[in-house]
Amino acid sequence: MDGPVLVRRAAAAVLAAAICGWLSTFAPGAGRVELTAAHGRGDVHEAPKRPPAPPKPPPPDCARAKCVALTFDDGPSESTAELLDILAARKVRATFFLIGENVVKRPDLVRRERDAGHEIADHSYTHVDLGAASKKKALSELTRTQDAIRQASGYTPVLLRPPYGATSERLTELTRELGLAQVLWTVDPVDWEHRDTGYVERRVLKEVRPGDIVLMHDIHPTTVKAVPEIIDRLAGEGYAFVTVPELFGGRLTPGEEYDRRNSGEGQGLP
């Protein structure tokens, strides 16, 4: 019996020695793998921070620059997305006067307008004549639109464009109470009647002057297709494109009416 026992002990000793040899052979490599993995985890935590985005340049001084405010009524609509692409490609900000019913239908476009830096504003809930409406009716039209825009974008408008440009003493009093300035316009290509891209282009380019507010409608694809040429031509003439609040230096009084600002070379300023 001693013989088999000795053989088994000898075999066990040989096996133990072999295992130790293998471990000693692989241990350094395993250590290197572990260190490499740990080093890799450190790289993730120590990645350089992205530098902050540079601040946006301030808007031009429209008391001196050749400013123009492009405004679009009655949206958002199916063609609004194309217009937003056009404005983004040219780095132009505009002002959108929104119908409350359409805001409820397309809140994603309202958010996109706001996120892109455009001014969004009230144009009533159903495009009713606010100048002829009772105070109760006008109040409902305005507050429902304000609520819809706020729910869609988180922003509460400070501007109103009364449909048809129809205002009244009663509406002026109401907008003063609600903190809304009334914005009309200087240039109207009557694009709701003339569904002709070339006509809209020619009409705007012929009539626009420094300090003007241009009325257009993004619900009409023919108007949207006119916008690139209008922007490119006016930019070539030295115009700066601003939102309505920027046109007036951010100083608009609730209840008051605004249709243009005297500004730029047309007024003989440097």
From TrEMBL:
<dbReference type="GO" id="GO:0016020">
    <property type="term" value="C:membrane"/>
</dbReference>
<keyword id="KW-0479">Metal-binding</keyword>
<dbReference type="GO" id="GO:0016810">
    <property type="term" value="F:hydrolase activity, acting on carbon-nitrogen (but not peptide) bonds"/>
</dbReference>
<feature type="domain" description="NodB homology">
    <location>
        <begin position="66"/>
        <end position="242"/>
    </location>
</feature>
<dbReference type="GO" id="GO:0005975">
    <property type="term" value="P:carbohydrate metabolic process"/>
</dbReference>
<dbReference type="InterPro" id="IPR050248">
    <property type="entry name" value="Polysacc_deacetylase_ArnD"/>
</dbReference>
<dbReference type="Pfam" id="PF01522">
    <property type="entry name" value="Polysacc_deac_1"/>
</dbReference>
<feature type="compositionally biased region" description="Pro residues">
    <location>
        <begin position="50"/>
        <end position="61"/>
    </location>
</feature>
<dbReference type="InterPro" id="IPR002509">
    <property type="entry name" value="NODB_dom"/>
</dbReference>
<dbReference type="GO" id="GO:0046872">
    <property type="term" value="F:metal ion binding"/>
</dbReference>
<protein>
    <submittedName>
        <fullName>Polysaccharide deacetylase family protein</fullName>
    </submittedName>
</protein>
<dbReference type="InterPro" id="IPR011330">
    <property type="entry name" value="Glyco_hydro/deAcase_b/a-brl"/>
</dbReference>
<keyword id="KW-0378">Hydrolase</keyword>
<feature type="region of interest" description="Disordered">
    <location>
        <begin position="42"/>
        <end position="61"/>
    </location>
</feature>
